[in-house]
Amino acid sequence: MQARHGSEFLKFAALAAGFIAGASLATTQQSAPAPSTSLQAYIAPDQSASVGVPAGWKVIKADYGVIQMSGPNGESISLGNGLYVKNGPFQFGQKANGIISMTMPNQATLAQKYAMIWQQAAAAGGDPTERVSVTSAIPVPLDNIAQCGIFLGIQTNAKGSSSFESRFCSLPMDTNGIFKLFWMNATVPTSLATQERAIAEAVLASYKPSTASLKLILQPATPPLPAPGVGAAGGGAAQSSTMYAERMADESSTCMDEGVIRQEPEWQLPAYCR
Hints:
By secondary structure, the chain is α+β, with helices and mostly antiparallel strands. It has a single domain, classed as Mog1/PsbP, alpha/beta/alpha sandwich (Protein Transport Mog1p, Chain A, 3-Layer(aba) Sandwich), CATH 3.40.1000.10. It has helices at about 1-10, 110-125, 195-205, 210-220, 235-260, and strands spanning about 20, 40-45, 50-55, 60-65, 65-70, 75-85, 100-105, 130-140, 145-155, 160-170, 180-190, 210.
């Protein structure tokens, strides 16, 4: 499933041959939530996720927690995407190898990782006219769980100009040097951005993956291990490792749901998220 998430992103986001990211994440907080927008409830056939769909929009993919939809004027939204990457030098145009979609340095900033994703998408798309400019990058306070931010910007190509909003996260690296990326993205024609941003943000906020689906989307390639000495009693280290991995999965999915998808204020997030 995870490899499928990666290929879907390359199809969806193969839009940029150049990337202009002028700065690291801004320190200002995200603006107030978008006003209430009328949406039609939709549940994926496999029950893995639900979302609100605006009138006139069509769901084009819905399985394994991933939902993608398109609007009547060239709008597109993709939700619940995740892929595995390996710590290492970035290689433009690199092909996927097993579950690993690409390599990138884990120590890179979140903005740099986001740029690498766009660059890799550009290589897959093969269109040299595409350009992407990030105009805003705002952090999401989930420092104990992941690096997360909200990126806004503009993409241009031969068809015109579109505005986008991405909620993008880089999860911790495991013991084998593999880490997970997670994102949600909405794109609308720039001419409609002012009137449709509230709609797009309402859709992003309405996305509700099942608990099992969100845990699977965020699942590391290697289960996390407890600190040394944990599990010496009451079932042994193996049982404690399993319990630790389950607790970390619960905490990660809760933080991602409340902090990134629903954008709850920092003071409302559980302490283990921050």
